[in-house]
Amino acid sequence: MTPTQYPGLIPSHEHERLAALQPYQVLGTPGQEVFNDFVSIVAKVFDMPIALVSLVRADDVVFIGNEGLPEALVVNREDSMCSVAILSDELTEFRDIAAEPCALVNPFVAQQMQLGFYAGQALYAPNGMAVGSLCVMDHRPRQLTPSEGLLLKDLAQVAQELLRLQAALAAGFTVPEALPTRLDATVQQSLTRLATLAELNQWETADTAEAHQYAESRLDEARYLAQTLYRELQIVLAGVA
């Protein structure tokens, strides 16, 4: 990539970062089923209309998991806030994009998509190089609570392991036959509990102790789901060289 208007998007270790991205290039097809399923869960957990898993390539960003933004499959690197998310180990958050747009990317794309909020967490290759991001977005201004920020980080770790697993599968690695069934059962149980908590919360007046308790319970359940998925994937990937 040779941008002139947005040079701040290119980290000093870009050559090494692109080398770390190579094993994942086989995943460069937008909207893959496993990642679409994953970001669908992420969007529900955060109660946001948009969730994406991205790979940030030399000149563009491909959304291999896409919930809520079907018109964006591959975008220029300078048009995506995911290009910014890979520059930091910390959560990248733009709470009111219209009032305070990101200065590192083209602001008109976010305006065209009527985006009001962005939060993204970088995804890393095993050598520590950032290759993409997991993000959630909304059409109105928002702010993640500290607990929600930790949850997004936990879910980003799951996304990292999914990236590793899919790359390994493409290279010929095989997983235990029982894994998909076990993971699906875990996900479905947690989604049922999350839906129940969300329904109960609808009966509560906002800003009451009960409403806050239901919200915290949803976050606890979501973090349990993320940590369980991460552990299961780590066990399987222990066999990957």
From TrEMBL:
Record protein name field: GAF domain-containing protein
Domain GAF: start-end pairs: 32-158
Species for this entry: Hymenobacter negativus
SUPFAM superfamilies linked to this entry: GAF domain-like
Entry-linked Pfam families: GAF
